[in-house]
Amino acid sequence: MVSNAELKKKKEMAQAILENQNINMNAWYEEKYDQVIAENQEVIIEALSAYSKRNKPESRV
Questions:
Q1: For the chain, how many structural domains are there in total?
Q2: Above 70 in pLDDT, residue 41?
Q3: Which UniProt keywords apply (predicted)?
Q4: Is residue 27 situated within a structural domain?
Q5: Among 1, 41, 45, 47, which has the minimal tally of Cβ within 10 Å of its Cβ?
């Protein structure tokens, strides 16, 4: 696991590189979040479906 100091250095370096390329850090993060979600969308849908089936309220008569 990376230490906080190492993580801070990596973040600073990435931010400097992105700034040099005129890329907004928040926009870059958003793109990465979207990428992770897209890559795992099937798993997320399956998990939500299974959760819904298990937690479906009983029908009231």
A1: 1
A2: yes
A3: Plasmid
A4: yes
A5: 1
